[in-house]
Amino acid sequence: MKHLYVGIMSGTSLDGIDIALTSFSPSAPRATLLGATCMPFPPALRHDLLALCQPGADEIHRAGVAGQQWARLAAQGVDELLQQQSVHPDQVSAIGSHGQTIRHHPESGFSVQIGAPALLAELSGIDVICDFRNRDLAAGGEGAPLVPAFHAWLLAAPQTRAVVNIGGFANLTLLDGACVSGFDSGPGNVLLDHWIHQHTGKFFDADGAWARGGQVIPELLATMLADPYFARSAPKSTGREYFHPAWLAHQLHSRQDNPADVQATLLELTARTIVDALDSCQPQAREIYICGGGVRNGALMERLQQLLAPRPVHSTAALGVDPDWMEAIAFAWLAWRCQTRQSGNLPAVTGARGERILGAIYPA
Ligand SMILES: Nc1ncnc2c1ncn2[C@@H]1O[C@H](COP(=O)(O)OP(=O)(O)OP(=O)(O)O)[C@@H](O)[C@H]1O
Ligand SMILES: CC(=O)N[C@H]1[C@@H]2OC[C@@H](O2)[C@@H](O)[C@@H]1O[C@H](C)C(=O)O
């Protein structure tokens, strides 16, 4: 039995494809990250993937083409990573490939991730496991978030703790002994990224510096916080279908605010909705660990620390998991769960009728 798995995640930020080579211990809940790489999207592919997140003409053809480009980039990354680690493809049990979400509609029972898994299997010579969300949806679940099951497997502890992923969207896991809850709290970086790009051409607000120079606009914050998604009870998940540029334009309506103040308000929205989501969980987490790109936003981390004080807020690095690779490692874990015919979802999180083995296998 081989214990090496490759996990591949390209999240809603559309910054690139994260790839993690991971080994799992069959006896203990332990995941060892052997190496990882990120393959940034070439601008044209990023543009095409972003366009596919909204309905548009000829989208089936465009999704077919973009999916293959995604698979070629992922296969190149896997090849480079394995060579760097002196690992032969035959030594890898499977690739867990999330693919790129282009539509997530749990209310209609489906979620679409593209990434040409057959081509990835062909190019890599490794079994590819993909389509992790639709079995949970078929069982009445949201199909997301899935990482809480991995957090529970790896990070459960006697004290109540929370793990918060801040990527394009933010999701949290509350670990309370054997009880696990989790859901998407709302936008993470997605609106911050959009707003800074629109005003400066930059892809993200490095360290939150631009937001730090602005002032929160209380009325705008109150309007955004009044969005019904935030008050909805779990299970719930969201994405670019809901929190998109038109959502922000609608919130701004005919306001003529200083753009840096809007950025400060969007950062406050992300922080407040994460804290409100944590506060809605019972019992309260006594320690909070953050992963995802949001860890690099110093202004956001400081605001979370202020709002959550005196509870400690750390990166998941404090638990021995590099915050940049948590999600990719989780998809390596989901591949292992599928291949060993173990369930991958948590019904208490997604709302599915029961535990299910997640994923579809494309043999090498
Ligand atoms: N130095 C930095 N300063 C501020 N923000 C940063 C920095 N580096 C990355 N980020 C933010 O992190 C985002 C990427 O995070 P991550 O890779 O976790 O998202 P993702 O996995 O694509 O999203 P999701 O978890 O929603 O699927 C970037 O879009 C950016 O907003
Ligand atoms: C549909 C989809 O791709 N959702 C992502 C997204 O990014 C964060 C959040 O929204 C989460 O629900 C999910 O990803 C992680 C990996 C999850 O399923 O746990």
UniProtKB/TrEMBL annotation:
Gene3D superfamilies: 3.30.420.40. Its EC number is 2.7.1.170. InterPro entries: Anhydro_N_Ac-Mur_kinase, ATPase_NBD. The keyword ATP-binding applies. It holds the Pfam family AnmK. GO terms for molecular function: ATP binding; kinase activity; phosphotransferase activity, alcohol group as acceptor. Coiled coil: none annotated. It catalyses: 1,6-anhydro-N-acetyl-beta-muramate + ATP + H2O = N-acetyl-D-muramate 6-phosphate + ADP + H(+). ATP binds at residues 11-18. The keyword Ligase does not apply. SUPFAM superfamilies: Actin-like ATPase domain (SSF53067). It comes from the Bacteria. Pathway: Cell wall biogenesis; peptidoglycan recycling; Amino-sugar metabolism; 1,6-anhydro-N-acetylmuramate degradation. Keywords: ATP-binding, Carbohydrate metabolism, Kinase, Nucleotide-binding, Transferase. One of its GO terms (biological process) is amino sugar metabolic process. HAMAP family: AnhMurNAc_kinase. Belongs to the anhydro-N-acetylmuramic acid kinase family. Catalyzes the specific phosphorylation of 1,6-anhydro-N-acetylmuramic acid (anhMurNAc) with the simultaneous cleavage of the 1,6-anhydro ring, generating MurNAc-6-P. Is required for the utilization of anhMurNAc either imported from the medium or derived from its own cell wall murein, and thus plays a role in cell wall recycling. This is Anhydro-N-acetylmuramic acid kinase. The gene is anmK.
